[in-house]
Inverse folding.
């Protein structure tokens, strides 16, 4: 088991299976098809992200470098949380952008969703974690992989 320490953006705890992307996470492209057509597994619809494309995201520990894409990203995250279709947590190797952070925070404050978010875990985190690993998030921003 390996431990990483990041900055808490949205507090919480969880244990979940990792889903890892080495490329940026386009929030709108990833969630748009699932939300429009009621995909219960919430499969990633971003064809430009081969690490995640067509893989279920609901209840997973999304391990990402950063988000990319349009200014709708924050609202998409909030909407996903309001429908209860969010990942178990979002873990970023780099600092989170303000739009994604705002959507995650709104999801935490205005919905019953639980989706801890930790950023600034470092490049070593993303090099170490693999899809399928078990991830545990602690309230102080400690992330255990193993």
């Amino acid at each position: 088991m390996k431990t990483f320490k990041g900055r808490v953006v949205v507090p919480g705890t969880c244990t979940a299976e990792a889903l890892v992307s080495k490329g940026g996470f386009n929030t709108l492209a990833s969630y748009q098809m699932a939300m429009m057509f009621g995909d219960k597994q919430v499969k990633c619809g971003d064809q430009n992200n081969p690490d995640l494309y067509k893989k279920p995201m609901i209840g997973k520990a999304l391990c990402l470098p950063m988000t990319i894409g349009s200014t709708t990203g924050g609202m998409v995250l909030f909407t996903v949380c309001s429908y209860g279709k969010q990942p178990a947590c979002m873990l970023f190797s780099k600092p989170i952008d303000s739009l994604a952070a705002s959507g995650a925070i709104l999801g935490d404050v205005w919905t019953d969703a639980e989706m801890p978010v930790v950023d600034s875990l470092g490049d070593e985190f993303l090099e170490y974690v693999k899809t399928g690993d078990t991830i545990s998030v602690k309230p102080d921003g400690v992330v255990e992989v193993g």
Remarks:
- The mean pLDDT is 96.
